[in-house]
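User: Some background: our group keeps a shared notebook of sequences we're curious about, and every so often someone picks one and asks for a predicted structure to add to the entry. Today it's my turn. The entry only has the sequence so far, pasted here. Could you supply the structure so I can complete it?
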Amino acid sequence: SLIIEPSIGDDRAGDGSESCGSDLELYPGESTRIPQSEKDTEDEEEKDKTSDDSERQYTPWLQVCTLYLVAAADGLSMTVLEPYYPLMLRTTFGFDEVYVGVLAGITQSSYSFASMISAPMIGSLSDRLGRRKFLVSGGIIMATTTLLFTLSPYFLLALLLRFCCGLLVSNKSVARACLADISKPHNRAVIFGYLG
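Assistant: Of course. Here's the predicted structure to add to the notebook entry:
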């Protein structure tokens, strides 16, 4: 730091000029620190701005693609069994052809109805308890109930399994919330556009 002292009434020898009391003197032996120039300051500000822009424009595509797969698996769990409903109702459960269409619609509707009830509650709980827990548990429940459905010998048991799967699994809504958390304003439209 600079230490300065005004000299009062000090006339320089030989020039005859009057002192106005504004001459400055430095103490000898004191260390001086030269402040940064304006150019250095501007360079640092530009570097910080560039790093901030690069951080804002970074997109974690590995996490995004993982959440895409989770959402796709949730959609598949709802539709992958639909082609097998008529065959199961006729051969495994022994229903007459007249009732196959109605019972297939009831089976599929039970999943959709349960999912409609549980999705808002699961979304609210995931906000408080953590999204990862619901994504992992939802995947396990979805795989288990789907497998047991294919092995079920009774129609009411199969119907209950589809209802439980829709009630306890809402990975697509949780995946959307995760995407909203990790996305930024500059890439949010692209991320959700690919999700469809």
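Suggested note for the entry: The CA atoms of residues 100 and 181 lie 44 Å apart. Confidence is low (pLDDT under 50) at residues 9-14, 16-27.
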